[in-house]
Each structure stands twice: as structure tokens, then as C-alpha cells.
Amino acid sequence: MPRALRPSGTPGMEELELAAILDCVALPVWVVDHDGRVLFLNPAGLAALGYDDLDELRGRPGHDTIHYLRRDGSPFPAEECPMTRVRGMGVTVRESDDWFIRRDGSMFPVSYTSTPIDLPGGQGAVVAFQDMTEQREAEQALRERETILASVDQPVWVLDEHGDFHYLNPAAVTALGYDDAAELLGRPAHATVHYKRPDGSPYPVEECTLAQARMRGETLHEHDDCLVRKDGSIMPVTFSMSPFELVDGLGSVTAFSDVEERRRAERVARERDVAEARAEELQAARRRVIEAADAARARLERDLHDGAQQEFVSAVMTLRLAERLLATDPERARALRQSSIELAQDGLAELRRLAAGIHPGVLTDRGLGKAIQALTARLPLVVEIEEELPERLPAPVEASVYFFVSEALTNAVKHARAAEARVRIAAVDHELTVEVADDGVGGAQPGSGGSGIRGLGDRVGALDGALELHSPPGGGTLLRARIPLPAQNSV
């Protein structure tokens, strides 16, 4: 049986007791009399509605003060308000999707429970409500996150603080061999998809680096691991795992990639290249170039996919988490923002490192002559350049010539101890001639000095060209490459 409050202005012991109790309740609560006028509002309720003192509200009609508009701004008549049924019919009303109005006129989402209470003048109501703004924002952020992750081709999952699946995007569900995320949600991740090693032996969770890093709240990148599909088959993967703040505690987000097809494609490509080279009886130099190029492509693909991309995925997820925590935990948000900046910077540095060894931009943009000028400007010797090319060479030829000159000049600095060098490039009668001469110590032999000269020969041989070497002791070194050209690229 509800307690009875005395008429306003004559508080009795029971009213004082109830007020004292409600003052200690963290949830916002107000009491209205049989006419719907405010009798009492606890401090939490005053703060939520933007008022400073109960006297600002006492005796005012509750509905006309905080519930008189709908969400769209249209009037909300008191006779249509569900809370009026509490006083009129003595029933408890619960609403999970409604809006109240603060003192300044702003509206905020609420859920509330309105319960009848017996008063001397008739039946009133006790209303306990909760500001749902943060929950709505969290739900919106969750929907945005799931929308983003659902559109990402890379498989991604989120684990809760217990290591159970909290979310999987469609790509992750498919990669693991399941039909629906519901088959995995709530299940322990390690015991479901990470419980055995590639050889089939058990993989205890105590030895799992992924699980241990998650429990410590650490970021982890792994380039050689495996997961277990629904059918029990092993899937080789690379992954990146980062801490992820959830409502109930610290979880983690993991982005992974199935590298099985890529490894199979790499094996097929290598076997095809080698078979074609043998079938056509290419020279050993061309075969070495092909194999080296294949290995370089595979290495570059792995470095890009497993390095920079994982850094950027982690940066995006960390930054989104920082945005969610900005209002509630600014210190944590700042730390996460700094972490995302560092991850992005690491990714950019990795991209720059990879790009520097692939193809100089000036070669593509301005041609061979300008690229070699830029190259020689960085070398500790004087280089004279003679270029006699009426038009651009085919891109593969330009790249090979550029790296030929680069390696030859590097050898002149490192091994020949040269002070001056000369580079000459000319195209005459369907043939490109490239010469690099220095004033160094000479004495270079095709089979000496490691693999440098052999590598130059391989590079020229890959273009069906020939390399000449003249290097008398004490007389400097001349390297001359002759490379056949299509008719349109010769003088």
C-alpha cells in the first residue's frame, strides 16, 4: 500500500521520511497530487530538468511544465498523456520512449515509470524517470559502427570483456564458414575459432597471444597465425587486435585477413613463371630477374596488407572509440586520439618506406633524364650526364635503365672510390645504349665483387640486352648496356 502524503504546506513525519528517502535516490523522481500538480522533486530530478530549487516547481501542473510538447514540437494535450491514467485509473504506466522538457525549453529522451500514490486529497502519482540521451547516443554510435563494419570487405569481430563474441561483420561470418552471426554471438572466441594449431594439436587459451593481449588491453599484430572454420578446417590469417571500450567493460576489436588464397596464388604464380622460363629456355639471368621480381611483388603485397593497412584499420577504430568517449571520459579520449595518430603515422611511414624502393615519382612524371639528375644530385661525386633521347622510352625500359644507372653509380662510390663519373644515354637504329664510366681504381671483373655486376647483367638480359665491362686496373670502369628497342622508340 503506498504511503500517503499530507497536503502541501503541512508536512508530516511520513512525508518528511519519504522526502528524505527520495533525496538519496540517484534516479530522478517527482510526486504529483490528485490534480497533477508537483508536490515534490528530488535533487536528481531537479538537476535533470535544469531547476535549482523545488520552490520553482512546487504547485505547478506537472504536464504543462515538463510534458506539454511532443518530440516534433507539436502540442501534447494533457488528456492524451499516458501519465494521467495513473491518477484517474490507479494503474502503473511504463514508457521507454518519451520526451520531457527542461527549464530552458530543450527536450531530452526519457524512459519512466508512473505509479499511483494515495494522498489526503485523492490519488496522485510517483514518477521515476531516466535521461536516455547517453544511451541513445551510444546506440546510434553502435548502429553507425555496425553499418561501417558491415560495409568493410575485411573480416572484423568485437569481443566483450569475457572474450566472447559481441559482434561480427558479414565478412567475418563468411570467412569463418558460418551462415549467420547469431551462431557465434555470445560464444567464447578462443574455444570456437582459435582452439587448435595448424598441425591439429590443442592450443590452450593460456598460451594464446591474442587472448593474453586482449586481457591486458594491449594492441597486437600477428602476420602468421590461423583460425578454425566451422567445419574444422584451418585458415591461415594475419590480424590486428586493439582494445575496444564497451558499455560493460573493456573488450577488443580484431581485423583479420584470410591469406590462404593469396599464398596459393603466390605459389601458382611462382610455378608458372619458372615453368614458362624453362619452357622458353631463357637465360639464367632472366630467370633470376623473374624470380626476384615475383618475390618482391609478394613481399610488397604482404608489407602493404599486413603493415600499413592494419595500422590504418586500428587507427580508424581507435579514433571512433575516442569520439564516443570524448564527452564522458576526455582523458581516455585524448589518449586514444594520440594512439590513433601514432598508428596513422606508423602506417604513413610504412607506405613511404615501401614507395621509396618501388618506382621514383620523378621518373614517371618527368622522364629518365630528370630522374637521373635527381639521383646524381644526392651522390658524393661529380656526375656528367649526356642524354640523347628524342622521346620517352617504354616504362619498363625506363625503370630498368634508371635502376641500372643507380646501381652502377653506387658501385662507383662504394667499390671504385671514384671522384667523377659520366652517364650517357642514346638511342640509335633500334638500339638503346647506356654507358656509365668512372675514374676509379678499375680492376672490376664480371665474377668479382659479389653479385653487383651479375645483377646489372641480369637486369639488362631481362630486356634481351647485353652488358659490356671495361675495367683495367687503375684505369677506371666503363659499363655499357645495349638494349634493343621497338621501331617507334629509336632514332
Can you walk through the features of this model?
This protein has 491 residues and is an alpha+beta fold. The chain has 4 domains: 13-131, Beta-Lactamase (2-Layer Sandwich); 136-258, Beta-Lactamase; 263-356; 361-489, Heat Shock Protein 90. It is 41% helix and 24% strand. The protein contains 15 helices and 15 strands. The protein has helices at residues 13-23, 43-49, 62-66, 84-89, 133-151, 170-175, 189-193, 209-216, 260-279, 284-325, 330-356, 361-366, 368-376, 395-414, 452-461, and strands at 29-32, 38-41, 93-101, 107-119, 122-131, 156-159, 165-168, 220-228, 234-246, 249-258, 382-388, 420-428, 431-438, 466-470, 477-484. The strands form 3 sheets. Strands 2-1-5-4-3 form a 5-stranded antiparallel β-sheet, sandwiched between helices. A 5-stranded antiparallel β-sheet has the order 7-6-10-9-8, with helices on both faces. The protein has a 5-stranded mixed β-sheet with strand order 11-12-13-15-14, covered by helices on one side. Strand 9 (234-246) and strand 10 form a beta hairpin. Helix 9 (260-279) packs antiparallel against helix 10, helix 10 (284-325) packs antiparallel against helix 11 (330-356) and helix 10 packs across helix 15. The model is unreliable at 1-14 (pLDDT under 50).
What is shown here, in short?
By secondary structure, the protein is an alpha+beta fold. It is built from 15 helices and 15 strands.
